[in-house]
Amino acid sequence: MKAFPMFIRTSGRRVVIVGGGEMAAQKARLLLKTDADLVIVAPTLEDELQDLVNSGQAHNIPDLSASVFEGAVMAFVATGCPGQDVAAQALAKAAGCLVNVVDQPDLCDITTPAIVDRDPIIVAIGSEGTAPVLTREIKTRLEQILPQTLGGFAALAGRLRPSVSRNIPQAGRRAFWAWVFKGGPRDLWVRGSERQATREIKEAIAQGKPSQTADTGHIALVGAGPGARDLLTLRAVQRLQEADVIFYDRLVDQEVLELARRDAERVFVGKHVGAHRWPQDRINAMIVAEARKGRRVVRLKSGDPGVFGRAGEEIAAADDANIPIELVPGVTAACAAGASLTRSLTERGIADTLILATGTGSADDPTPHSTRLSGPGTVTALYMSMRQAARLADQWITQGIAPDSRVDICAEVSKKGEKHVRTTVATMADSIRKHGITGCAVLLVTWPKNESTPGADVSVAAPQATSGAGVVALRN
């Protein structure tokens, strides 16, 4: 190493920033995360820095001199002028102050790392100035992995340390903290059950050791989104990183599974429209059985698990077994299709209502009246409807939609095989057959407020973005 990484205490200490422009403001934003006494040296300040001074978050000294660096723990020089930067660096060095000169590594005693902030947990990533883009990439990955609430959990542990010292024998403290940070309390905390986690830790401290009962497993129903793995939420990635076992469907892309823990067990349940390798009741039984073993179970579903994903049945099974369960939403088919088309699903003057429906129902109602809420001023997104297109078109035309109203057929959205076909209500069934679209696709049917929207059968090769598969209406 050419630079030794360390953390510098800032409480009650002064940090100097030389410069009054945007580069100085960037450093100020970083330093505001600390409790340092911030001093900005410049005759004039840009608006953001002036607001910091006006609000008492920083002090301003107009004139640069050696005295401004006396007693300072470190300084950042960001004037934007090479000559002024050199002069300020020399004054700081003369005062014995560690200095960083922006974009001039040869003048730097200290460098600014990429920071993942989960105060009081801080991760700093540096490359000794050789690869800043790579350090930012590493930071991004760590931001995805580390829960946002992790800092609060560490702070709780800090507050409880005196109590642990009084009640837990020294020989057992390492095992106790391992249970806190790797076992049930941490799992509860990152899932949002902070009170329960705190209660379990305090009860264990009072007993002088963790409970002998096994950690309770839990189930997370996680939305994998439309396919592209960078459309997963941070919470979805975190649950995949924590999982002991993952049950996933045919529509989940393999790249999404690459975000999971390497040693997590993966179980393919093979579900798709019209053919279920595993019936739903077997899936329910398996995820409950795995959670009862104390395992962290992820049920990974394409799109959003709460939109035509049969999440209700799995939630009910977990509730009946008294297993904690959470729902992690994902980007659903209709939203992903609209984004891929670069169009709003609602538009003033054309459609102020969005309807999510499915063309394929349950065994008791295999052909639901999916168009019943459609009308002037609506966009209807149809999931699992490719085989039902002719029937649906007849229903819409009977209800009064213009046969030439616009239909967008969006298949494999966000995936490599993505395809868009723009057609009309009257011709959409023929278009589906013509272009060989099956399974993983969504129909977006626009019924304008005052007039029909003509469309033509046009196949559009899109640059890679749902699938998804009762009726939900959303109104502006």
Textual characterization of the structure:
This protein has 4 domains: 14-112, 3-Layer(aba) Sandwich (Rossmann fold); 150-207; 218-330, Cobalt-precorrin-4 Transmethylase, domain 1, CATH 3.40.1010; 334-475, Tetrapyrrole methylase, C-terminal domain (Methyltransferase, Cobalt-precorrin-4 Transmethylase, Domain 2). The protein is 33% helix and 21% strand. It has 15 helices and 21 strands. The strands form 5 sheets. Strands 20-18-17-19-16-15-21 form a 7-stranded mixed β-sheet, sandwiched between helices. A 5-stranded parallel β-sheet has the order 3-2-1-4-5, sandwiched between helices. Helix 6 runs parallel beside helix 7 (184-190) and helix 11 packs across helix 12 (311-320). The two termini are 57 Å apart.
Which descriptors apply to this entry?
disordered C terminus, Cobalt-precorrin-4 Transmethylase, domain 1, 476 residues, five-stranded parallel β-sheet, alpha/beta, single chain, 21 strands, globular, Rossmann fold, seven-stranded mixed β-sheet, 33% helix
- Tally of discrete structural domains: 4
Helix content: 25-40%
| CATH-defined fold name of the largest domain | Methyltransferase, Cobalt-precorrin-4 Transmethylase, Domain 2
What is the CATH top level name of the largest domain?
Answer: Alpha Beta
| Widest sheet, order of strands | 20-18-17-19-16-15-21
Q: How big a fraction of the residues is strand?
A: 15-25%
